Amino acid sequence: NTKITQSPRYLILGRANKSLECEQHLGHNAMYWYKQSAEKPPELMFLYNLKQLIRNETVPSRFIPECPDSSKLLLHISAVDPEDSAVYFCASSQDHDNSGNTLYFGEGSRLIVV
Amino acid sequence: QQKVQQSPESLIVPEGGMASLNCTSSDRNVDYFWWYRQHSGKSPKMLMSIFSNGEKEEGRFTVHLNKASLHTSLHIRDSQPSDSALYLCAARKGYNKLTFGKGTVLLVSP
Question: Residue B99 pLDDT more than 80?
Answer without folding.
Answer: yes
